[in-house]
Amino acid sequence: MATVTFREERCKGCELCISVCPEKIIVLAEHYNAMGFHPATVVEMDKCKACAICARMCPDVVIEVVKEEKQD
Amino acid sequence: MAKVIFKRPDSLTDKQFHYCPGCTHGIIHRLVAEVIDEMGLQDDTVGVCPVGCSVFAYDYFNVDMFQASHGRAPAVATGIKRCLPERTVFTYQGDGDLASIGTAEIVHAAARSEKITTIFVNNAVYGMTGGQMAPTTLPGQKTTTSPRGREKELNGLPVRVSEMLATLDGAVYVARVSVHDPKHIVQAKKAIRKAFEIQKAGLGFALVEVLSTCPTNWGLSPKESIKWLAENMIPYYPLGVFKEPAEVK
Amino acid sequence: MSKVLMKGNEAIGEGAIRAGCRHFFGYPITPQSELPHYLAKRMPEVGGVFLQAESETSSINMVYGAAGAGFRTMTSSSSPGLSLMQEGISYLVGAELPCVVVNVMRGGPGLGNIAPAQGDYFQAVKGGGHGDYKLVVLAPASVQEIIDMMQVAFDLADQYRTPVMLVGDGILGQMMEPVELADEVTLPEVPAKPWAASGLKGRKKPNIVNSLYIVPEDCEELNQRLFAKYDVIAAQETRWEEYRLEDAEIVLTGFGTAARIAKSVVDKARSEGIKAGLIRPITLWPFPSEVYAKAAAHANKFLCVEMSMGQMVEDVRLAVNGKKPVHFYGRSGGMVPLAKDVLAEVKKLMAGGE
């Protein structure tokens, strides 16, 4: 189970994360952030494989990726 | 157990970048900061930022920083490194700064084989001043000072900095990389790391040219800019390692 | 103490070494070449760095790097080279970095020639580069004073976090004079520089060497801070020499080589019954204005002697402030005033001529 966190207030809505996500689960939100951009967000978090490709592509370093590892 | 797969590197401050949406400067900043973190160099690194879009880089790198006058970052870095030979010194420069007004400084820093690392960001345009033609602007590329497209008769042809510097004995590592997709970003980081490793090994001058986008001044969306870079810049500025010392191959 | 015969340019170098400077960056230009020649040999002997840069532009920016890293550092050049350095000097001022810049002046404008001149007075004391600022400008007039002034230059630079300029000319640079040198050299104490950008080394907050103040309010604040500093410097660091001034009816004035000539004219004039005296500014900025104002109370007239078309004379006029006439005698373009011609000018003025 992975969690992708966007620092929404810093997202400039450039969509580069959307263009590289292999699972196609990132979209721009309907609402605006304080800068007037539609921030990126993950719609189906359960499909996230924690590959962090979105985070590596993000020019504004707004994405953090955390993976829950199964307890043995 | 929660495992952090990706987080902001310590060698970046928490300050928000001022760059335009989709500008890949931010990716390059992050890669440099990650390399500094991973090599354990945050405590002894001194960076020099240029004049241009990355003029505020001193606010973003969480290390001691200098702001240099236009084009002179390699001279400033030389002054620092000659006083503090054990420190890690890098310059971060754009194409107007390095390839136009600062050509003398970069050529001679390379010729002296100053033990510094230069990150050269090439986006084929002056950004901060309003999208003017750069020495790296492609033939036919429209800018605010080449409104009919760059003309060979009027402006000559672009400067291929990496190829030019690689002819100097003092430039021991020269590579051109790109950050237009995740695969290339991984390769770019490897090259940047190598350029810092070469400095730490005391081998001499190392430069990584990074092809970058400028959606605002190219008049394209961030996604279109990525495509434009891949289709137009890479053919003119081929990626690869032009020079590499045997010690680190 | 030993007495040693030294060239002025070499004295600049030895003075710098004795002041604890271990990093010199420079580019060849006549007539200051003996200085880099000297330091190229001497710096490695004391564990220092002599680096020949690719241009004066680079020299001054290497100084910016070294000064920002917290080291005593300097560069030197001659007039055209100084023109190239002006941008860098303005940045050094903006970032409040201490350093020493030497100008062994030559004939100008343009490529001019390599003969001695003082035509860079304006450039030195009125800014030179862009923006609102002053440099502390020292003008020694003998080889001994050069050695002593180099220590003063580095100390003032560190104390006030400002570039200090030392100006000479081709004559001062190339002439040989005996100087007293201490046999034991104790390196001076250099003040701590907690602002230096030299690597965090355990510090939490990065140091930033910067002259960018993008918010106008902040930039104005920088200017106000600089000028508050300049007020302190003017109050505490103004230096000058007075010679036979007490009862002088005509006051000669000049700096550097021109002052040496003027001083000899004072003696000749006195021997012919003319009450002449001399004011020699040692700091061109801050300018010793009050000394002129005081002298104007008893002197009838002033004669400013320069190796230029008349630059310092403007500051003398401002200092005298219309109380007495201020005359000018100068040679320029590398020509040096002759004592007999200056004396003739003094006699003419004392006889009531203009």
Structure report:
The complex is a heterotrimer of chains A (72), B (249) and C (354). By secondary structure, chain A is of the alpha+beta class. Helix content of chain A is 14%, strand content 24%. Chain A has 2 helices and 4 strands; from the N terminus they run E-H-E-E-H-E. Chain A has a two-stranded antiparallel sheet. In chain A, strands 2-3 form a two-stranded antiparallel sheet. Chain A is globular. Chain A starts with a strand and ends with a strand. The model of chain A has no long low-confidence stretch (mean pLDDT 95). Helices cover 37% and strands 18% of the residues of chain B. Chain B has a 7-stranded mixed sheet with strand order 3-2-4-5-7-6-8, with helices on both faces. The longest helix of chain B has 19 residues, at 182-200. In chain C, strand 4, helix 4 and strand 5 form a beta-alpha-beta unit. Chain C is globular and about 70 Å long. Chain C starts with a strand and ends with a helix. The B-C interface holds B 13, 42-46, 48, 55-56, 58-59, 61-69, 72, 75-84, 87-88, 104-105, 107-108 and C 23, 25, 49, 51, 53-55, 57-59, 61-71, 73, 87-88, 91, 95, 197-202, 206-212. Strand 3 (64-67) of chain B pairs parallel with strand 9 of chain C, so a sheet runs across the interface.
List low-pLDDT spans of chain A: none
Biggest interface, which chains?
A: B-C, 37 and 39 residues
Taken together, the total number of domains of chain A comes to 1
CATH topology of the largest domain in chain C: Rossmann fold
Intertermini distance of chain C? 49 Å
Architecture of chain A in CATH? 2-Layer Sandwich
Broad shape of chain C = globular
The first-level CATH class of the largest domain in chain C is given as: Alpha Beta
Oligomerization state of this entry? heterotrimer
Estimated radius of gyration of chain C: 21 Å
Helical element count of chain A?
2
Sheet-strand content of chain C, in percent, reads 15-25%
Q: Report how far the terminal alpha carbons of chain A are from each other.
A: 15 Å
Radius of gyration of chain A: 12 Å
What is the C-level CATH assignment of chain A? Alpha Beta
The level of helicity of chain A is 10-25%
